[in-house]
Amino acid sequence: MNAGCLVLACSFLVGASVESKPSQPIKPPCTPGFSQNFYTVILSRDLLHGQRILKDSTLSSERVKFEDCQRGREVGFVTNDPNFGVRHDGMVYAVQDVSNLSEPVQFMVTAKGLHEPRVWETTVKLALAGHPHPLALSKAGITEMLSRVWDSQPKVIKFSRKHQRGSAANGLRRQKRDWVIPPINVPENSRGPFPHLLVRIRSDQDKDVGIRYSITGAGADQPPSGIYNIDPISGNMFVTQPLDREDRASFHLRAHAVDMNGNQVENPIDLYIYVIDMNDNRPEFQNQVYNGSVAEGSKPGSSVMQVTATDSDDSTTANGMVRYRILSQTPHSPIPNMFTINSETGDIVTVAAGLDREKVSQYTIIVQATDMEGNLNFGLSNTATALISINDINDNPPELTVRTFSGEVPENKVNVVVTNLTVVDRDQPHSPNWNAVYRIVSGDPTGHFTIRTNPITNEGMLTVVKPVDFEMNRAFMLTVVVSNQAHLASGIQSSLQSTAGVTISVQDVNEPPVFPVNPKVIRFEEGVPAGTTLTVFAAQDPDHFIHQIVRYSKLSDPANWLKINRTNGQITTMALLDRESIFVKNNVYEATFLAFDNGSPPASGTGTLQIYLIDVNDNAPVLIPREAQVCDRARPNSRINITAADADADPNVGPFVFELPSFPASVRRNWTISRLNGDYAQLKLRISYLEASVYEIPVIVSDSGNPPLSNRSTIRVKVCPCDDNGDCSATGAVAAAGLGTGAIIAILISIIILLSMVLLFVVWMKRREKERQAKPLLIDPEDDVRDNILKYDEEGGGEEDQDYDLSQLQQPESLDHIINKPAGVRRVDERPAIAESQYPVRSSLPHPGDIGDFINDGLRAADNDPTAPPYDSLLVFDYEGTGSTAGSVSSLNSISSGDQDYDYLNDWGPRFKKLADLYGGGDDD
């Protein structure tokens, strides 16, 4: 090939930059260089023969970007493979004929600024389409390939030397261009042995001075550290462990050379290490089960769904290139391969026609994804399941099961189901393609029937919505059409079985009598006498084909004014009709009547009679108000406005006529009345002063009826003295109430006497309370150690003896059962039938010495006396224990001398202190 031949689908775009818009997010700082560190180009073998490679314009569509942040930068490109070159626009081309290429070729492309020393590198790999990948070889082939990769690495990398340029006299020379260090390729998952020598780093000055070598960067002295190391003396660089490209695809290290003192003798060089991908990862589907759908009847090529699998290996190599295929289809109806899959995109489409949901509603597809471009011999595979549902279309019209339906319905009934129309539809149940819609197309012009669809069974329920009359129509012949809620699919014709006839028979029933006019309104003047015939309220029997007798009765008559003839329905009055009655509303009196026949079973109907009562002047007007109040002296505002109320209606009400009677004469002498308008008049004093009191003034009121009615009404007027504002004062109000001056004085005196008595009683109570508090106590409060006395009004034991049986207090009629009672606890209300104990009798003037004997004798007698009261409670003496400071009371009789000293009683406690004072002669505290 000549130098103008275009060879690779890889171009390097120089100066490609895009200005960011203000609305876009801020981009990170621009970094010049290639967009990728490693490019793979797959070419067809045919493109490498003859001139076809020159004419294939599709190769230039794939480009690799070189980012130049400075638009004026001049960049040159070179390769390290003599068979390939790079044009000034970055296009890679073949310098020589490479049609005999049998293995992938890998070379390095270097970009360097013409006016600056900086360089950028990338690696390009050229492989033929269909060429076996190195990992597709046998184990021996893999070992051989790895050895080729190891052996292809540069053996020695020298530090670049910079020579100065000058005149010939001083020996200066032109500076040489720096060496471009090719990248180091290391295959992943290598089995070693480790450490494995990658390259040797050396300096030209190692013959003159002692050199120490070192490397820095991620993988060496930075995390992940320890992957690479270098012998500081020999400069041999090693990899210490297997690499994983999916974990880290490249490393950037720096090699340093220093002398024995640590001084830098060479500029650091950059080492780029690329991990060569191996096919060590299977394709992984994003889902194990995919769900897709396609409409039944779809044409071949219809899209169904897409499955996607990803491979962690390098997608630019065959290791990560996934291809898809269908392994199986279940069921095989109508053919085993109804679907196909795009091997590259994973799109599943239909292959053949014939998808029918009514036959097969779902297909199960097993899809396989294989890397190595689908090579089943060497690629790794994985599978997933695709469930394809066949969507229903309305390709089956509904069909009525029979051509004729029949039913019957009773007359005058609504919302009754006459018959059920059954239908068959093979489309998806409970979908618009299956839901049936029924229509009545003929036989029901008046709209007596409708058809509702049962949402569960899809049956048509023929229902009566308007009552049918047996006397008018004894039968109906309907024509019914059924269709789907959704339109039929294109090309599908409606079936003849979608139409049917329905025969409906009407059943005759006993209908109730009907009043022709209901309600019936009549007009009468109020006050018509009892026994007056008002009207005939008769009903008709709609059952024309059956002769039946109709009878009448009264159902509602609020005032009990009317009666109805049982046979002919004649209405007559039983009392006077009064328009002013509370049972009349808006001049209308309403009553209801019942008409019933003698059918089987009997039927009845209700009719309403409304009597409009015309008003007559039968109510005299009544004066309003009945009470009023004016000042005792004639004032401009001392007037009473009066009107009248009349129960009648117009024109038997106002305008009213008001006048004062001639008798008694004092009325017209003291008062005058004047008309304000047709409904109001004004009553006021004729004289300048009238004594305060209550006056009853008669007024004659007449209405405007024909003839007019009059009424003598009395208005009660209170006349009282008024203040300057014309308001009645309090004293005047009392005087106006009818009390004289003497009565008022008597009332005031009585109030004063009553208040005095109350005051004297309060003073007396306070004085008595003061005397009671000043009276000295018999016992000093300090010595009074008694508890509070609780008084009980019953003979029990107080609070703890509330629930007792009163029958136990009754004295038994016989004592035999008591005498013969065995020993034990005796009822306290039983009186023993033995001789009563004799208590000792003290002399009227006892000697102090016999007090102890008297107490002991009394105690002994009480203990032995079963008859000791009270009989209704049990006397219990609790043992108070030993150690009492009072000692024993029996010590009182230990001294027989008359002159006995009782001062020791003071030591017995506060309870004996008063006794010691009485007998010991001590002073009271």
Automatic annotation (TrEMBL):
One of its GO terms (biological process) is cell-cell adhesion mediated by cadherin. Residues 1-20 form the signal peptide. GO terms for cellular component: adherens junction; catenin complex. It is a single-pass type I membrane protein. The keyword Cell membrane applies. The chain crosses the membrane at residues 743-765. The keyword Transmembrane applies. Residues 178-285, 286-400, 401-515, 516-623, 622-729 form the Cadherin domain. Cadherins are calcium-dependent cell adhesion proteins. This is Cadherin-4. Its main location: other. GO terms for molecular function: beta-catenin binding; cadherin binding; calcium ion binding. It comes from the Eukaryota. It is found in: Cell junction, Adherens junction; Cell membrane. Keywords: Calcium, Cell adhesion, Cell junction, Cell membrane, Glycoprotein, Membrane, Metal-binding, Repeat, Signal, Transmembrane, Transmembrane helix.
